[in-house]
Amino acid sequence: SLVVLFGATAGAYGAKLGSDERELILLVWQVVDLQNKKVGTLHKSLVKADNLDLSDQCREVSGLTPEGLGKAEPLDRVLQQFSQLVSSDLKVLGRSSYTLCSDGQLLIRQVLHPETSKKNFLLSDCFYSFYDLRKEFHTCYPSSAAVKDQTIKTMAEYLGLGTDEAEEDFGVWQVKTMVAIIFSMLSEDCNHIFSEPETVKHKYETGPCSKSETVDSETVIRARGLPWQSSDQDIARFFKGLNIAKGGVALCLNSQGRRNGEALVRFVNSEQRDLALERHKHHMGSRYIEVYKATGEEFLKIAGGTSNEVAQFLSKENQVIIRMRGLPFTATQEDVLGFLGPECPVTGGKEGLLFVKYPDGRPTGDAFVLFSCEEYAQNALKKHKEILGKRYIELFRSTAAEVQQVVLNRYMSTPLIPTLPTPIIPVIPPPYTIATGSIRDCVRLRGLPYTAGIDDILEFMGDATGDIKPHGVHMVLNQQGRPSGDAFIQMKSADKAFMVAQKCHKKMMKDRYVEVFQCSGEEMNFVLMGGTLNRSGLSPPPCKLPCLSPPAYAAFQTAAVIPAEAAALYQPQALLPSTRTPQASAAAPPTVTYYPAQAAQLYMNYTAYYPSPPVSPTTVGYIAAPPGAVAAAATATHTPILPQPGALVRMQGLPYNTGMKEILSFFQGYQYAPDDYNGLIQLSDQARSVLQAPKEWVCL
């Protein structure tokens, strides 16, 4: 038997059904006995949505009103009634089993599964298998229109069925016509057999991916804007109703090994990928997620691996992976198993543990653990920040792709500090404030096209370009080095900023409208240095010191951005005391020109703090100088900060309660440079967030 099913939402209709996240408001169904060619009672049920604001298209097509829907039952009650009425009709027809049949895949995959997932209730098993009438029709009538161009009306016209849509209620005509189409397909001329239903996966299957594997680029998407704590299961839930390939979720990590809010997702075929693209800007919690096309090469770069050790670790299917960070370097497998305890047994015992190590075999303090079910994993996560030895251990959800990225690619396996003779650009430049004060003489541009440059902004500003301060255009990159879609502009006065905000707000740039807000220099400065400015107000940055962008960014493509004099070797003032000679202070580097006449852009890290699960091992993020700057620095005259080579040492792994007295006692018998211990500087919390090097001191 078939249960012919039709539905509608409060928003888009037809080919865009479900693309706008609107809720289901109508279900119509009828049981069809294929063997005896009989039908059961036709049922129509309204569904009460949480948001009864109907779109104009919905009102026009369906004729439904918010008043009528307000008296209906919620979706969970309607689905219970659906199951009861179908069972009753089957009993009358003398049948026992059935499969759903819908007009296309959108109602099942893009409406019912996502909505019930968000509302946290389960669909019955019948919704995980269904027939797509359009595909079945095209199989039966190969000369008909392509599947993507089919509708109930075009299929009826092809068969010459003379049904009048205006004579029936919305939804009733659609179901009656679908039933008539099915009976035509069952006629002696066609004798069609419904044999291969569409399926929806109950859950996402984890698994490894080999770099030698071929991945079709037509099956991969990139999801952007994910919460930092998102796991592969969270992403699979976002795409509920669509079939993700086994091991097809790869969380992306940045150059520091931290999750960057992006993921590559591989689907079983291009049809599923195309449906996934329709979920662009759908919500995960309170965040909207951007969905774009990606390539198979990009997926393999993130998810692919060839290590036998990792392959063996990930060979156990359908396991929950937990990442442990902060393990003592002397921790053994027995120590970890004892820490987790009997309430969360590890799959395979010691075989379910994978320690992350440096290329030279030293432990990093990270490990991955396998659990056979969600219950054991939840018990393990409850041990977050409990003590093992003398250290607290952090536990996070992880994925197979993250295991391969951390273990195989070894983002953090580079030397801790480069050879001292090689000139470096400091992480923290000389103190420089872009703008200060509470006068609202700046504007913020939000929603810029990612390809937009300063020339585009100047064209966008029009006549107001003449009111921009010199060096007053500041582009903003996010922490991955990509355009964030934001820019700040310093105007000559608050009145000019107000006029620009009024004139240019929601004006189009290329194919996007741009929002323009008036703000102060202080607000602009905070955001450029990692803070946030939103409806909730101003949140200061975790670190109030700006960070230079990595050399791969375009900021280093022009010598005007970093003058040759600034490329000389010197240490950040937050770490080392100033030189105790008058000559050194007189030779301070000049201020960096952030917006030269050649229209170079201000490229700054959008934030220096990553609230994603930390990565081990930690490192001081020194940035190699661009070749041109290094060459210039070699010929430049500068006063070295270090009194002699090798005078700087770094201590890692100190207890958090370590004081100056313990440090001096540790170095007893060695001569350290300054009197009254000015050379011994404990890192502040802000410096930690920039350098990402907890539990450390620097001694001179």
From TrEMBL:
Gene3D superfamilies: 3.30.70.330, Ribonuclease H-like superfamily/Ribonuclease H. GO terms for cellular component: nucleus. Residues 320-400 form the RRM domain. The keyword Metal-binding does not apply. It is found in: Nucleus. It comes from the Eukaryota. InterPro entries: ESRP, Nucleotide-bd_a/b_plait_sf, RBD_domain_sf, RNaseH-like_sf, RNaseH_sf, RRM_dom. Keywords: mRNA processing, mRNA splicing, Nucleus, Repeat, RNA-binding. CDD domains: RRM2_ESRP2, RRM3_ESRP1_ESRP2. GO terms for biological process: mRNA processing; RNA splicing. Belongs to the ESRP family. This is Epithelial splicing regulatory protein 2. It comes from Loxia curvirostra. The gene is Esrp2.
